Each structure stands twice: as structure tokens, then as C-alpha cells.
Amino acid sequence: MIQYFQVGVITQPHGIHGEVKVFPISDDIKRFDDLKECYLKIKKDMVPVTCTGVKYFKNLVILQFKEFESIDDVERLRQCPIYVDREHAVPLKEGEYYLADVLGIDVVTEEGKKVGILKDYFETAAQTVYQVITDDGKEVLIPAIDEFVKKVDIENNTMTVHLIKGMI
């Protein structure tokens, strides 16, 4: 399972006291209200930081980290991804799962026939769409809605789907 989830990307410094503007990558922008501990991916290292301040400006989040006190400290953090570990991720409700956890799982039909491996997902205006690659390399796109995704079993590494004519 994936240990870290990306929640944002630092776009640029904000002010002279070490704050940064962050483009959020999260379903709920208010998740930053409870953000205390997170990680900055600097080059290949996951550097732990402590969030001491959160503000909102338009569609951006402005964060202050305990470890950085000036604009000079944060200037090098442009385009730096921000991650949380599983322990500090937003808690899931019953029947929910993290999208990152479905990558690589086996996709099967309700009859048990293997469709392929879930390789990626993307967002559209209407919903999330799963990209499944069949054993012979073909792409199958499955909307992530209850009509098509019948069951996701993370523990057994399977997703059961209902396919209609034309999907394959």
C-alpha cells in the first residue's frame, strides 16, 4: 500500500516570513485546517515539516511551516509536492477507499472474468474514470460510479465491475 498521499504543490513564496502558496490536490480544501504534520518531497527525500499556520486565498492555501522563517528559506520550495502519511490522511467512511490504493488491483466482471489491471485514473467534469489495461494491452475506461463499479476489495486486491456493450 502507498504510504504517502499528495495533498498539494507549493507554487511560490507568500510574503517575507516564510509562508508559501499551495495549490491543493484534495477533494476537500478545508482538510488543511487540521494539517499539523506533513512531508515535503525535496529532490528524492521526504522531509518532515510542522504546519503552524493556514489561510485561504481564492483557490489556494497559504501555509506556514515551523522549519522555515523567511522568504529565503522557502524560495527553493517552488513546485515542491506536499504529502501526508497514512496516519494523518483524512479518515475514510465505511465503504470508502483512497484512489491511490486501487492502482494495480485486478479488475474482474461480476461473472469472475478478468478484465485487466487498474493502471490509472483521471478526473472528468462528471466523475472519476478508471483506466484498465487488459492482458493484451488494450485500454478499457470505466466510470467510477456505482452502476459500473460494484465492489472494491482492497484486502483481496480486486475490483468487481459491471460492463456494458461497447466498453471493451
Structural notes for this entry:
The chain has 168 residues and is an all-beta fold. Helices cover 2% and strands 48% of the residues. The chain has one helix spanning 71-74, and strands at residues 4-14, 19-24, 37-42, 45-57, 60-65, 81-85, 106-109, 114-123, 128-133, 139-143, 149-153, 158-161. The strands form 2 sheets. It has a 6-stranded antiparallel β-barrel with strand order 1-2-5-4-3-6. Strands 10-9-8-7-12-11 form a 6-stranded mixed sheet, with no helix packed on it. A hairpin with a 4-residue loop joins strand 8 and strand 9 (128-133). The longest helix is centred in the middle third of the chain and has 4 residues, at 71-74. It is elongated. The two termini are 28 Å apart. The relative contact order is 0.16. The model has no long low-confidence stretch (mean pLDDT 93).
N-to-C SSE string, H for helix and E for strand: EEEEEHEEEEEEE
The number of helical elements comes to 1
The side-by-side strand order for the widest beta sheet comes to 1-2-5-4-3-6
Q: What is the 3D shape?
A: elongated
**Rg computed from alpha carbons, rounded to a whole number of angstroms:** 19 Å
User: Which stretches are low in confidence, meaning pLDDT under 50 for 5 or more residues running?
Assistant: none
Q: How far from one another are the termini?
A: 28 Å
Average residue pLDDT: 93
Percent of sequence in beta strands: over 45%
Q: Quick one: biggest sheet?
A: 6 strands, antiparallel, barrel
Provide the structure class: mainly beta
The counted number of beta strands is 12
**Helix percentage range:** under 10%
